[in-house]
Amino acid sequence: MLRPKLGQHFLVKGAILERIAAAACPSRENLVIEIGPGRGALTERLLQRADRVVAVEVDPYLVAHLRARFAGDPRLQVVHADVLEAGLAQWGRAPVVGNLPYYITSPILEMTAALDLPRAVFLIQKEVADRLVARPGTRDYGFLTVRMAVFAETRLCFQVKPSAFHPPPKVDSAVVLLQPRRLDLDIADPTRFLEFVGHCFRHKRKTLRNNLAEVYGKDRVEAWPEGKLRAEQLSLGQFADLFRRLAQPE
Ligand code: SAM
Questions:
Q1: pLDDT tier at 105 (50, 70, 90 boundaries)?
Q2: Smallest Cα–Cα separation from 12: which of 32, 38, 35, 49?
Q3: How far is the CA of 249 from the centre of ligand 1 (A)?
Q4: Residue 230 alpha carbon to ligand 1 centre in Å
Q5: For atom 17 of ligand 1, which residue has the closest CA?
Q6: 6 lines ligand 1 (CB under 6 A)
């Protein structure tokens, strides 16, 4: 029984499954965590590249299917849970991979940014992938781009057509690789920094001056030469510079 509300679009192209597994486990891993294993198409490939797989699936029918299908393989732990509530950190530092349920792509990306992990490989909507890897000054560049860039280097690996799935989704998809990094942005409070970036992008077409005046006071913002710019023109480094000057307490 298919449950479209749970974003159930199963990958049926072996070559694509193989490429995702290889991106998640370029060399042998002790453990890999899979989000939304479905019927186990990707899980099977991951088990060839890792000593253990923890697979978190919310649909009880699929959990039962997986437990029956892989009954002879103790290296797979099927966890029946909502991935957003499962607490992935409990399994320690491990790559995270999944053909994601698209209705919760953003909260999964947000959750991933809070984890300590070597890499994440996600199959997501192409439109979201474009936003993740966008360059400043382009249409797709926005809060999500900067938010994820603080946490990781993002790379678009390859695109996936709807025909690679059953049933086919209505949109094109793409595989992205997120590689966490420690940037020295000289920012004491990353949460406040991201709040600041959020304010900058509040109305995308407005200037920074207009977006920030309400929050930081008109006088302070008026005196600032870059105020005429729009958020979409600034790189991560420029946001950090601005935050230190404008919003971070001395
Ligand atoms: N990995 C499989 C494949 O590639 O064929 C299935 C991918 S399908 C796009 C997404 C999977 O995520 C489905 O199995 C769905 O039941 C599961 N899922 C949906 N919401 C979830 C949630 N909140 N937590 C865990 N899994 C979820």
A1: very high
A2: 38
A3: 43
A4: 37
A5: 36
A6: yes
Residue nearest ligand 1's atom 6 by CA: 38
Q: How far is CA 68 from CA 11, 78, 99, 161, in A?
A: 20, 11, 21, 30
Predicted pLDDT of residue 41: 98
Domains in the chain, CATH or no CATH each: 10-180 (3.40.50.150), 190-247 (1.10.8.100)
d(CA 120, CA 152): 10
Ligand 1 atom with minimal separation from the 12 CA: 5
35-55, pLDDT tens digit by residue? 999 999 999 999 999 999 999
Distance CA 214, CA 216 (A): 6
- Residue of 134, 76, 69, 125 lying closest to 102 (CA atoms): 125
Q: Is residue 38 within 6 Å of ligand 1 at its C-beta?
A: yes
Residue 81 amino acid letter? A
Q: Are strands 120-125 and 96-99 parallel, antiparallel or unpaired?
A: parallel
Ligand 1: which of 99, 123, 173 to mutate, judged by most atoms within 8 Å of the beta carbon?
Answer: 99
